[in-house]
Design a protein that fits this description.
single chain, mainly beta, 4-stranded antiparallel sheet
């Protein structure tokens, strides 16, 4: 079992930046894949980015070159640096852990105003 707690969301103007954090209750070094997802009102949850414990990252096309996912094993935390935010990035952002997204946090709200 691992508990995940997201933080860092908020209201930001288009073009701005936010950094989301996902703190895990146990070491993340043994967790093969950590991910960030988001869900906008009325839409399905979508994958935003993943990072493996081997250093590989993957991004949704819609966020490539704007978002950066990173893992800090010393703090058992995963980050999502979001730059050049757009109104369509608005949604609730969730952290997941595990190859099959076995564990989820409660999410943090991101709202981007135009």
């Amino acid at each position: 079992q691992v508990q995940l707690v997201e933080s860092g969301g908020g209201l930001v103007q288009a073009g701005g930046s936010l950094r989301l954090s996902c703190a895990a209750s146990k070491t993340i070094a043994s967790i093969s894949i950590m991910g960030w997802h988001r869900q906008a009102p009325g839409k399905e949850r979508e994958l935003v980015a993943t990072a493996t414990n081997g250093g590989r990252t993957n991004y949704a096309d819609s966020v490539k070159d704007r978002f950066i996912i990173s893992r800090d094993g010393t703090k058992n935390t995963v980050y999502l640096q979001m730059n050049s935010l757009k109104p369509e990035d608005t949604g609730r952002y969730y952290c997941s852990a595990g190859r099959y997204q076995n564990y989820w946090g409660q999410g943090t709200q991101v709202t981007v105003s135009s």
